[in-house]
Design a protein that fits this description.
Length: 449
């Protein structure tokens, strides 16, 4: 896969943006490809996949595009996915329903964990204790108690753990971070994000295979710490719809928006959250809302507004807008754009209801204080747009960052502390929704208040 080097992208963007905010949209950047480093035969990182569902298989396909990475083993609770893994990656692939068998292998360097949320903590902790580095899908936690244990295990075992919110490795988000820090939109006051879906698949109604039964599905292993109930194929394959296994729209989608917000602003997280919503349309037995709206207060002086709507009647879409005192910055896919409307040099006046004499006195004082106010105000909007090259993948960059850290032992982009702060903030939405009240969060110490 062709990957864009972040350094070259930012260099090109900065060069193109010289004299920023004085013209029209910028052209797409041409990416200089960084030559792939030659990988010695004995230098391959050998990985295992734990959880071979939609996300797990997708993650692995991207991970294997990074030079020097080889898949040796796959664990999943459904036999059909183990069989398909061999169809994808070869009959010599080791497959098992018990991930402990993967962790016991000495030839596995790292694992991708893409299980249901309620297995993230246990699988990650087990893997790190087994000496494996970990790429753990978001949200890192299912319960707040998961976070401190994962962080402490990573510290005591000296293992690398990367949480899978790939936007923090995106060159587009890096450019947005640079623009905000440069004052491109002035003082940030609000961040507004939405994620609307209008399809059954978007609402997690994934197809259940025809052979789903207690022979092909390891139901007791899937349940893990969840309440023990009889086999339910829908809950096995559509687990995001139930809070016993998943974290609702907050853990699936909000967490991406929190990761992006924290990366761009440098914030550790919000201090208060308030949420509302409900189960409006998909009344199919699920126990998490399909519409969720939430507001968050940040100690840096801005507010975050989030919305997820699984009942949207329009196009499936996402929006992410940063509003400041001097303009707005919007991220859409692999683009970031900044719009600025020049602020008037003088505040203006409203004097028409006063006597003529008072109006004259006020105008004289006004023009003395603002001598340039006689000049016409500049009203045109300035617009700049930064576009990643066609085919750019932040997921590739995120995995590339992880594997580089595995080799070098240098910090990853999204370690367990960052992952906990993003997921902890996102799950405040669920807590506020369930309690019907404002909830507090200490983003520094990562504790509910």
């Amino acid at each position: 896969m062709n990957s864009l080097n972040r350094r070259n992208f930012l260099k090109a963007a900065s060069a193109t943006a010289a004299g920023s905010f004085v013209g029209s949209a910028l052209p797409m950047f041409a990416a200089a490809q960084e030559p792939a480093r030659a990988i010695a035969k004995n230098d391959h990182l050998q990985i295992g996949l734990i959880g071979a569902g939609i996300q797990g298989q997708g993650d692995t396909k991207v991970a294997l595009q990074v030079p020097g990475v080889k898949l040796l083993a796959v664990a999943d609770c459904y036999q059909g996915r183990l069989d398909h893994s061999k169809e994808l990656w070869g009959n010599d692939l080791f497959t098992t329903r018990n991930y402990s068998e993967i962790l016991a292998r000495k030839d596995i360097d790292a694992v991708i964990i893409a299980t249901p949320d309620h297995w993230h903590r246990q699988a990650a902790v087990d893997a790190m204790h087994a000496g494996k580095d970990v790429y753990c899908e978001k949200p890192m936690i299912h319960l707040y108690s998961d976070g401190p244990e994962i962080i402490e295990t990573a510290r005591t075992t000296n293992r690398v753990i990367q949480v899978g919110s790939q936007r923090v490795s995106s060159v587009v988000y890096a450019k947005a971070k640079e623009l905000l820090a440069s004052g491109a939109i002035g003082q940030l006051n609000t961040v507004t994000a939405r994620w609307d879906r209008n399809s059954s698949m978007g609402a997690w109604n994934y197809t259940v295979p025809l052979d789903a039964n207690t022979e092909t599905c390891d139901w007791p292993r899937f349940l893990g710490t969840a309440p023990k109930i009889p086999f339910n194929a829908e809950q096995f394959f559509q687990w995001r719809k139930w809070k016993a296994y998943g974290s609702g729209v907050a853990g699936d989608l909000f967490v991406h928006l929190f990761s992006g917000t924290h990366f761009i602003t440098g914030s550790k997280g919000p201090t208060r959250a308030m949420a509302t919503g409900g189960l409006r349309f998909w009344k199919d037995g699920r126990d998490v809302p399909d519409v969720l709206l939430a507001l968050f207060d940040y100690p840096e002086g801005f507010n975050l507004s989030l919305r997820v709507n699984f009942v949207d009647g329009g196009d499936e879409s996402e929006g992410f807008i940063f509003t400041g005192s001097e303009g707005t910055m919007e991220i859409a896919g692999n683009t970031v754009s900044v719009s600025r409307t020049p602020r008037p040099s003088a505040p203006g006046y409203a004097i028409g209801t006063y006597t003529d004499a008072m109006q004259k006195r006020l105008l004289d004082a006004y023009h003395d204080k603002y001598p340039n106010s006689h000049q016409p105000a500049e009203t045109s909007m300035n617009f700049e747009k930064f576009i990643a090259p066609s085919g750019y993948s932040d997921s590739y960059d995120h995995f590339n960052n992880f594997f580089q850290s595995v080799r070098s032992r240098k910090p990853v982009e999204e370690d367990a502390v960052f992952g906990f702060r993003a997921a902890g903030a996102a799950l405040l939405s669920n807590l506020s929704y369930e309690r019907g009240a404002v909830v507090g969060w200490d983003p520094v110490n990562m504790k509910l208040t």
